[in-house]
Amino acid sequence: MTTFRDALAAGPLVLDGGMSNELEAQGHDLNGTLWSARLLRDAPDAITAVHRAYFAAGAQVAITASYQATYDGFARVGITRAETTTLLQRSVYLAREAAAGTGWVAASVGPYGAMLADGSEYRGDYGLTVAELTRFHRPRLEALAEAAPDVFAIETIPDLREAEAVLTALDGLGIPAWLSYSIRGTTTSAGQPLTEAFALARSSDAVVATGVNCAPAADTAPALALITGLPGVAYPNGGGVWEPAARSWLGAEDEIADLAPSWLAAGAALLGGCCRVGPAEIKKLAARVSASTAG
């Protein structure tokens, strides 16, 4: 049976785009601390529809709607631990349903800062130890692992301490992962050199690729050029700057498909989009990837 590692080696693979922007385009209100994760309980069919739209556009990998789904975050709004486990696993099942046997499912694991819903994933340094962050991440990883995703998408990680914690929490789960960082130029959001961040990713046998996401598109290729020893991951935002107080993106949008050849040249094997990137952009990106790798 072909595994995700096998498919990645034969790559490149096209990832999907932003979940939240497509849910908002459907008319769903995502205000609140749970963001798109709320719809795992309230409107799961809407999540499946978004996954299907991205597969129809040419994506080969669906990233689940579990980025902001955590035991702590759900508990704050009165959702029990048992129901949280159900919702986490539902995120994988919804993506699997949409994949219809032809696509891959990546279980999203967002940073601690996503649960805070205050933009901390673009700053890092929460004042927590590696051990505390490991205890935060491990139960969610265990719940998602039971639903058998093809890979974990450890994404938007802002600093090395949290990266170390998540890699520790991955131990023994038997599922590969990619590890992607939120960045500022050639450093993590917390200011550490990306060369150190990518070296940390290489230290884990579970990690099959590393790179950046939820980053400015123009910063993506220079960041990928710093990766050694692993395939690259590139799924930046579609332009603008996130304003946490307004919970909205400000500024013009980018045409990320035009940058795909430069990402491939820099070693990217997983390419897609994050916030403000929809199915239309993924369709263009998939076409550029196909044209760049033809023959």
Residue ranges: pLDDT <50 for 5 or more in a row? none
SS class = alpha/beta
- H and E order: HEHHHEHHEHHEHEEEHEHEEEHEH
Count all strands and give the number: 12
> Helix fraction?
40-55%
Provide the β-strand percentage band: 15-25%
**What is the 3D shape?**
globular
* Number of distinct helices: 13
Q: What is the topology, as strand order, of the major beta sheet? A: 1-12-9-8-5-4-3-2
Question: Largest sheet, described in full?
Answer: 8 strands, parallel
Radius of gyration, rounded? 17 Å
Q: Overall mean pLDDT score?
A: 92
Q: What's the assembly state of these chains?
A: single chain
Q: Give the termini separation.
A: 26 Å
- The figure for the number of domains is 1
Describe it for me?
This protein is an alpha/beta fold and 295 residues long. It has one domain. Helix content is 43%, strand content 16%. It is built from 13 helices and twelve strands. The strands form three sheets. An eight-stranded parallel β-sheet has the order 1-12-9-8-5-4-3-2, with helices on both faces. β6 and β7 form a beta hairpin. α4 runs parallel beside α13, α6 crosses α8 and α9 runs parallel beside α10. The longest helix has 19 residues. The protein is globular. The mean pLDDT is 92.
